[in-house]
Amino acid sequence: MTNDTAIVALPCGHCFGEQCIEECLVSGVRKCPLCQKSFRSSQVFQLYLPLEEDCERSYKQKYDELAKKTGDLTNHYQVLKDLCDMTASNAPIISRVNDLVNQLAIHQEELKGGKATIDKESSQAVNPTPESKQKKKGKLCKFFAGMKL
Length: 149
Description:
Layout (H helix, E strand, L loop, with lengths): L6 E3 L5 E3 H10 L17 E4 L6 H35 L1 H34 L5 H16 L4
Antiparallel strand pairs: 1-2, 1-3
């Protein structure tokens, strides 16, 4: 056998060069040359395909491509892992910011409800007195005092 010889297996498990088995089939002998078990041509399985001359180069090129893809995937994995770690470590901060945003929304709604009262007071007096300014200032102070930073 040589590098370009195709190898075939018979149902009994013995392996031969494809040409030897073809000669057996042509001559009408349908028995394994070693164990004499019968076989049909449909039961002959090719195990080895002839190699190309540039096989080594082709496999090396495919290996290099796969190695590059593996490196790229490893880098992507590391970036995603770092992002997950950062998100996990910032979870308390994100939770606190969400709480503050919710509190702000609630207080804004409360101010909208109180805005009608403030608007009535300001429309009655063109030049507001220092006392009415003090009342408005008091509401804002209450608003900010209720927020926990």
